[in-house]
Amino acid sequence: MDSVTDTGPAEVYERAFVPALFAQWGPILAEAAGVVPGARVLDVGCGTGAATTAAARSAQPGGRVIGLDPNADMLAVARRKPGIEWVEGRAETLPFPDASFDSVMSQFAIMFFDDRVAALREMARVLAPGGRMAVAVCGALEASPGYRVLAALLDRLFGRDVGDAFREPFVLGSREALQALAAGAELPRATVTERVGSVRFDSIADLVATERACVWTLGGLLDDDQFARLRDAAENELRPFAQDDRIAFDMPALILTAHL
């Protein structure tokens, strides 16, 4: 089995996705959420803790940081990181009293919540007066050239259903979509800003193998023969983004902030 995918999804996320994509956003999101030394911070949909650890650094000395996620396997990996409280729970029913946190943040998770508006309302509920919320989502697929090419390749090889499964993380990638959610949740002083980050994998093969292992998109959709076809085709289609055997391209994010 491919070295990228020979462990569980949580390990793949931590070992492959975090360094390639997610680690860069933690400090940006912590700043957007107004995390300062001594702050009480909640990271909703924390996964293995990429953003939570950045918030914990910003909250020291004296801060209290909690990471919450519904996935026990993700939390098992997250619990290797000391100095943070890890809680299993759902964004739509946060297990905390009103006004418990100075900063609430969520990084690339709300796209997968069952009820996005309810989750935003819950984040606002647990935010203390004067606090700040920051929620990051993937920007438009069209603005992420490597992923745009990969989505089109999946359409061509396996049909639109598979391509659309890959597109799922990008469904909130417009200002209008986020503003509509904020309005539905009645968030005060909500704004949406765009920041441009990057995707960087050691090789095209690593990128494709990692995406295949992602349970939120392609996980379980491709058999071994289909994966081999995708990997071979991607070597040609993604070659314009190769740099010294690595692959890199821009990926913007939208950050929704609200202030109480």
Q: Considering DSSP H and I runs of 4 or more, what fraction of the residues is helical?
A: 40-55%
CATH architect. name: 3-Layer(aba) Sandwich
The computed structural class is alpha/beta
In round numbers, the mean pLDDT is 93
Please name the fourth-level CATH homologous superfamily. Answer: Vaccinia Virus protein VP39
Radius of gyration: 18 Å
Main pleated sheet: 8 strands, mixed
Distance between the first and last residues' Cα: 50 Å
**Beta-strand proportion:** 15-25%
Low-confidence stretches: 1-5
Name of the level-1 CATH class? Alpha Beta
User: Count of DSSP E strands?
Assistant: 8
Shape: globular
Number of domains: 1
SSE topology:
Blueprint: H1 9-22, H2 25-32, E1 40-44, H3 50-59, E2 64-69, H4 72-78, E3 85-88, E4 101-107, H5 116-125, E5 127-138, H6 145-158, H7 160-167, H8 175-184, E6 191-201, H9 204-213, H10 224-237, E7 242-243, E8 246-259
Parallel strand pairs: 1-2, 1-4, 2-3, 4-5
Antiparallel strand pairs: 5-8, 6-8, 7-8
Helix pairs in contact: 1-4, 2-3, 6-7, 6-10, 9-10
